Amino acid sequence: MHHIAEVERNNIRENLKNPTFLSIMSDGSTDTSVKDEELVYVRFCHKGKIELKFVGIKSVEKADGAHISNAISAIMEGVCDEWRSKLVALGTDGAAVMTGAKNGVVSRLKGDRAYIIGIHCMAHRLQLTFSDAIRSNVMFQKVEDLLSGLYTFYHTSPLNRVNLVNSFQALGHTPLVPT
Question: Which InterPro entries did the record assign (predicted)?
Answer without folding.
Answer: RNaseH-like_sf
